[in-house]
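A note from the maintainers: we've had questions about how concatenated examples are separated. There is no special marker in the raw files; a new sequence line simply starts the next protein. For clarity in this README we add a label.
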Amino acid sequence: MTDTPLRQIPFRDAEGRERTLDDYGSGPVLVVNVASKCGLTPQYEQLEELQRTYGDRGFSVIGFPCNQFLGQEPGSMEQILEFCSTTYGVTFPVNDKVKVNGRNAADLYRALKQTPDGDGKSGRVEWNFEKFLVAPDGSVQRFRPKQRPDDPEIVAAIEKALEG
């Protein structure tokens, strides 16, 4: 594991450039592993609504396509970006595909997975659309895939992180 602060762990954006969470501003970010062919894919709609509601206050949703769950994100980056923009009007950043579990998991996800969820369980990402709210101070809250982005608990956590 690296000693690099969470918000400064590098990853690649959709164009292959190296980025960090701090590159998307100093506000809170909601990191989500996304997929185009999943039963939870309609969560893109609520993620985009969060982006539109809170984006002007420094908040950002940041998507990471992942094909580790039953091959539900098989497309190229071009296909993924096209799907996101035409189907859900996504304006938040969608970065390069990553692995979230296993030996080849992205460094950012290796760090995020250490965070326990509301039930105290950390470790593997369960499925597509697992959400990690990273506050400006680097603290993290974890929300499991079936918890919708517009769930009052997630909205309250975003609002608290924006105030903090």
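[label: protein 2]
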Amino acid sequence: MTPDPDEWRRQGRQFDRASHDYREGRPGYPPEVFELLQERCRLGHGSKVLEVGAGSGQATVPMLDMAAHVTAVEPGANFADQLTRYGAGRSLRVIVATFEQAVVAEDSFDLVVSATAFHWIDPAVGLAKAAAALHDQGWLALWWTVFGDQTRPDPFYEALLPILQAKAPELAAQGSLPMWYALDVGGRSREIEDTGLYEPVEHHLVKWQGCHGPEEIRRLFSTFSPWVALPEDQRTDLLADVERLARDTFGGIVVRPYQTVLYLARRRARGSS
């Protein structure tokens, strides 16, 4: 079943409810992502970065650790509060707004990034606004972590699937994130290139594993947008199933195959054809 983009963007407006679980339950991004940004996009000391949909800072903090100056746009008040606290004393500015509504200086950034968040943005608006914010030859970097990999075994999800089919079949059909969206290399590349504002897109795929205890895997699933949108009683019941499965069937350790897909594109010089 292909998710409706408008529907998952509506779900995104509820995401701030899960801000604490997101901070505690979501794994960070693999180091290879930041190595690529350093190598290809010159992320590092003094870089001026605009981050779209910063959440609780899983990408923000590593960039601050690399001595970048980060302006983080985040619509959720709870997430923005977390960012402000974790970034205290560092080169971080937080704008509490949607990216579409945020007032962002033009021709001011070396890098515009968005980590597992740009699917919440109308691409017709977001890609043009990102290009306006970038210096000529600055970089756009969009990436997503997909919590699963159909090319590798995933015993935990296989064990969870019958529970979902019985109690919440819409989750079994939809998955945790629009996987097809993140992994649709042709679609994402065409969206960026068809604006005429960027050079040809580079695509990188990092395969890795997540390792979680029962409480961690419960928190992780509680951050998935279709789960956030469930009625509270149903959500609580299903999350208890996730934790119980991890503890009783998997001995308290869940290892799952994940992948992070990264799209990089350099902004064309203004006035170039």
